Automatic annotation (TrEMBL):
It is a multi-pass membrane protein. NCBIfam families: PRK06265.1-5 (NF004905). The keyword Membrane applies. One of its GO terms (cellular component) is plasma membrane. GO terms for biological process: transition metal ion transport. It comes from Desulfobacula toluolica (strain DSM 7467 / Tol2). This is CbiM: cobalamin biosynthesis protein.
Length: 201
């Protein structure tokens, strides 16, 4: 779901960069440095999951895992995602440096929203935990697709059909991400509950 270099307009790139900088600053402030290893593990998972992708016009479809990253990290997901996207851009030319801010917003903001919407449901029951994980994975990709489509549309109204194509092409990814995230969260809650930032009663 990377937006390539040379696609977006200057104002859209500038807005994306500004939001990404603000989000990264807030994320760095909110990182619990006792859990920095968790941030690194999830950033690495995001980095690896995004390496296998299929090009769709100016963007690409692939497993992203921003739902689980956001679910477990909250605002710290933004610097984690920024790090992974920066390395992908430098090492593999996925996306681009000029579009980095927009790509961070497209993948990072839905991750943060997933944290606040679905984290409170984890641990209530095994079924509810899976459903919350599924919703986090599905919702994060849905919102990312909408944000990506919006960035293209604000650049040029002629991108409307391309935006719809990208959103529709990601529907299978939304479902797969939901299932993967649901199983991952349920598994982690059993074998490594320390990684899930549940509030202690």
């Amino acid at each position: 779901m990377h937006i390539s270099e040379g696609v977006l307009s200057g104002p859209v790139l500038a807005a994306g960069a500004a939001i990404a900088i603000a989000g990264t600053g807030l994320g760095l402030k909110k990182i619990n440095y006792d859990r920095i290893v968790h941030v690194a593990i999830l950033a690495s998972s995001f980095f690896v999951a995004s390496l296998i992708h299929v090009n769709i016009g100016p963007a690409s479809a692939h497993l992203i895992l921003n739902g689980i990253v956001g679910l477990l990290l909250g605002f710290a997901a933004i610097p984690a995602i920024l790090t992974a996207l920066l390395l992908q851009s430098i090492l593999f030319q996925y996306g681009g440096l000029t579009a980095l801010g927009v790509n961070v917003v497209v993948m990072g903001m839905p991750a943060v929203l997933s944290h606040y919407l679905f984290l409170p449901l984890l641990g209530k029951s095994s079924r509810l935990t899976f459903i919350a994980g599924f919703c986090a994975g599905f919702f994060s990709i849905l919102l990312s697709s909408l944000l990506l489509g919006g960035a293209l549309w604000f650049t040029d109204k002629n991108f409307f059909e391309t935006s719809l194509t990208i959103i529709m092409a990601h529907v299978p990814v939304m479902i797969i991400e939901g299932i993967v995230t649901g199983f991952c969260v349920a598994f982690l809650l059993k074998v490594y509950p320390e990684i899930i930032p549940l509030k202690k009663k």
